[in-house]
Amino acid sequence: MLMSLGMFPFSLSTLAHEDLSRRTAWRHATAQRVGARDATQYVGPGEESISFGGTAHADLTDGRAQLDRLRKMANTGQAWPLVDGTGTVFGAFIIQTLDEKHKALFPDGTARAIDFSIELLRVDG
After folding, report:
1. Of 5, 55, 56, 108, which is the most buried if we count CB atoms within 10 A?
2. What angle (nearest 5°) sits at the alpha carbon of residue 104, between those of residues 15 and 102?
3. Which residue ranges of the chain lie beneath pLDDT 50?
């Protein structure tokens, strides 16, 4: 298992991601000062997001069904714990976006491969 979002495992048999990006921000309030740079004060953590993507191949998995499972999870609006394969807990995340691109189609329109990308946003509480 590469990672799990709630009870959804990202793996070769479901959806295997090929890359992962993590972005963390911190908030600082500023106050203008005459003749000097603005004063800043740390006011807390900002947004944290994780995005990743890959390709689901028809000979390994039913990518369309797996993406539909993720859509159902996103439709609930719930936050899900995100844990990587080494046991690192990243926190609770909501699914913000899910993109897919079907390519190399069979004659009936079924995709041989589906490129996907997913964006998650960390939420507290």
Report:
1. 56
2. 50
3. none
